[in-house]
Each structure stands twice: as C-alpha cells, then as structure tokens.
From TrEMBL, chains A, B:
This is DNA-binding response regulator. The modification 4-aspartylphosphate is found at D55. Residues 143-208 form the HTH luxR-type domain. One of its GO terms (molecular function) is DNA binding. The keyword Protein biosynthesis does not apply. Signal peptide: none annotated. PANTHER family: NITRATE_NITRITE RESPONSE REGULATOR PROTEIN NARP (PTHR43214:SF41), TWO-COMPONENT RESPONSE REGULATOR (PTHR43214).
Length: 210, 210
DNA sequence: CCAAAAATACTCATAATTAGGTATTGGCAA
DNA sequence: TTGCCAATACCTAATTATGAGTATTTTTGG
C-alpha cells in the first residue's frame, strides 16, 4: 500500500508543480491538496495520511500553529515543512514542534523527493542553509550593515520586528532576555534615527529585509 | 520552431512545478529558469526568448524593475507576471510597464497554459480587472474598503500609522480625541486580524496605502 | 594574546499600545 | 421615519515599547 501524502499550500501553482514532481513515484499517493491550515485539519480528521508537506506561510491558520496541532492530535503523521526563508530561529521552533523535516522552497525537486523518502522511512532532515545565504547576499548584507552601522544581531531583530513579533516573542526565539531585546531595539532606533516600531517596519521593507 | 519561454522565480520548487506543468506542450520550449532579476537580464542578453514568466517578489532586482528594463531593452519579448496577491494598484503599474499579462499564483495550471497560449498569439490577460464589470467601482479605495470591511476613517488612520505617527499625533491632526483614535485602532486590528502596529504598517505597505 | 566590538542583562521611569468594555451623536438608506 | 452604521468619546487594566543609564561577558579581528 502506497504512503499517503498531502500538500498544504496557498499557492495553486506550487501545488500543481509539486504534484507533477511527486507523481513520478508510485510508492506514494497524493491526496487532493489543501490551501490553508483549517482545511488541512479538516482532511486529517477524515483521511488516513502519512506525510504532510506543510507551507509555513498560509492564511487562516499559519503553518507553525497547524504543525503544533497536528503533532498533538496525530503524532504518527509525519510533517515536512516547506518555507521561503531560512530562518534559524523559526527552524528551532519547527524542530521543537516536532516536524520530521524542514526544507527551503528553493530546493531542487530531486532533493525534495529524497527527503520525503527519507522521512517516510523514519528519518529526519533539516535544511542547513541560512548560514550561507549566497555570497552575493552576504556581500549585500555586509555593505548594508556598514552603511547603517548595524550589527548582525540588530539586523536580525529588525527583520523580526518587521515580521510583527513582539520583544517577548523575539527573546523566546533567540533564547535571550527580553531586556537584551529591549537594548537592541533602543540601539536600532538610535542608529537609524527612528522613533517607533512603525519606523522600523518601514525601514525593514524599504531595505528588503522582509 | 517552438516558442522559447523562461521562468524567473526565486522558489526552486515553484520552478520545478511550473516546468512540469508546462512541459506537456510541444509548442513551446522552456529555457533553464533563473532565480532573480539580474540573472534574467543576463540570459535575455544572450538568448532569444519569446515569453518571460516573471515573479514579482524576487531578490536582487525586483519584478517591477526587471519588467521595466525588459520592456525598454527588448520590446518584443512578452511578459506574463505571476504574483501572490491581487493588488489592483500594482496591476496598474504592471500594465503601465507593458506586461502582456498578470496572473495570480493561485491560479489553476490549466488557466496558466491558456493564458500563455493567448499571449504568445498576441493577446493580453489581466487576472482580475478584466472580469469585474466597469460599473462596479472604478474608485480603487471603495473596492478596497469593501474587501476588508474598513471605513474611510479607518483607512485614513491606517495610512497615518504607516507614516509612523503615534495615536497622539493622529488625534492632533484629525482634531479628534486620543480615545477615538484608540477605538479606531482597535477596530482596525480586529477587522484585519492583526495583532500590533507592525502588522498595520505591513498591511498599509502591502496595499500601497503609503 | 589583546583590544575593540558585539551581545548580553539589568534598573527605574515614562509613554504608547492593546483589550475589554459602554455610550452618544449624526447621517444615510430602506 | 426608523434603524443601522460610522464616528465620536470615555473608562479600567494590562501589556508593550521607549529613554537613559550601567555593567558584564563573549566574540572577533589584528
């Protein structure tokens, strides 16, 4: 009996693509895809599923939350998280929530298939990226940091503020004190000559940090 | 001789997917995909290309800028823009920049194929505006407000939050009480399902309110 | 290795935002 | 004209962010 897979992603084109890529194999069977977390939970209640390919950036019920619920209610179902950015702190969260794997969306199809096979056989896989976000990007980031006299940590926190996290949430993800986040925020506002959170978000977007 | 297509998108999985979906047809040929605007321009200089499938949200050189450059330097190359959100004002920009088509990423594969065929034969296709009758609302803001159930005042305040004003400053400018601004902010967060100021700023920018 | 920079953590104080309410007014449409 | 909605205003309470400091540890570069 083939393994039963389901894709949860809000981009239909990605779904069609994944389906095409994954249908080359007879060892697994694809259930009709769902477009958000709610739909996914609805299907999981009614169907027997072995592996969920889970997009993190979904409407309705976001990926991390959906993941926690799945792992709590259906511990046997394996989950492979697909995401856009390599966010190490998010990765820690995903790991903690119990996903069997984590893969960036900009991975080749062959790797995806390998990882799925690995997970179905009981393995785990966490994409190691992020350390090296491509040379050009590193260069860009260095230049950018120099221009604004920002440190790596500060840039990281600017991104997280832009992603609507509170200081508490940031401190939890980075495993540092809320006081420390507060210090970083102060330094960010001073260095960039901004006066509040809205300014930081605008800065983050204007500089393509999010 | 088949038409020559190229995909420009930073998500490898989407590329693999699109490739699989598009390879069902012999009337066109897919060039190796590129992951950002720079790479795309590099390829266009060296290869003969008929149609570009262009993602709007790319690193390095964003979609709209890449589009302008393509249309200026290679007016014969047709461009179909693929994007995440239906942003009517962005659509106007894309149209102005000369793209032959505009399609949301959450479109079925069949539609994508039809649209590509149409464009290659000299047609145009814009995802949303074409379908909505002109009598409805030519005023963007009305449509926008209806979509999110926002009032005029709320939109006004969203803009001001995006412009980094505090509630106090907003109340001063609008000659209303700070309490009133606070009420509006509450309603905004509730209606848009956001949790803080950063979310409002992101919303404002994603919807080109600032 | 050593100095500088970065990251960490804390106190005290104030400002701003968020989360629950409730309530009144004016305008517009059925 | 009557009922709904938008806009206004207020209250209490909790949470989050900002401002101005100080200080220690860790990391990094020369």
């Amino acid at each position: 009996m083939p393994y039963r897979l389901i894709i949860a992603d809000d981009h239909q084109l990605l779904i069609d693509g994944l389906s095409a890529v994954l249908n080359t194999n007879t060892e697994w069977e694809l259930l009709p895809a769902v477009n958000n977390g709610r739909e996914l939970l609805y299907v999981l209640e009614r169907e027997q599923v072995d592996l969920v390919l889970l997009d993190l950036n979904m409407p309705q019920l976001d990926g991390v939350k959906a993941l926690s619920i799945i792992k709590r209610n259906y511990p046997k179902i394996k989950v492979l998280v697909l995401t856009n950015y390599g966010q190490p702190q998010l990765q820690a969260e995903i790991r903690k929530a119990g996903a069997e794997g984590y893969l960036l969306k900009n991975s080749p199809a062959a790797l995806l298939r390998e990882v799925i096979q690995l997970i179905l056989e009981g393995g785990m896989h966490y994409s190691e990226a992020e350390e090296t976000p491509a040379e050009e990007n590193t260069w860009f980031l260095d230049d950018f940091m120099k221009r604004y006299q920002l440190t790596r940590r500060e840039v990281e926190i600017i991104k997280m503020i832009g992603q609507e996290l509170t200081s508490k949430e940031i401190s939890d993800r980075l495993y540092i004190s809320e006081f420390t986040v507060s210090t970083h925020r102060k330094n960010i506002l001073r260095k960039l000559n901004l006066k509040n959170t809205a300014g930081v978000v605008n800065f983050a977007r204007e500089n393509s940090l999010i």
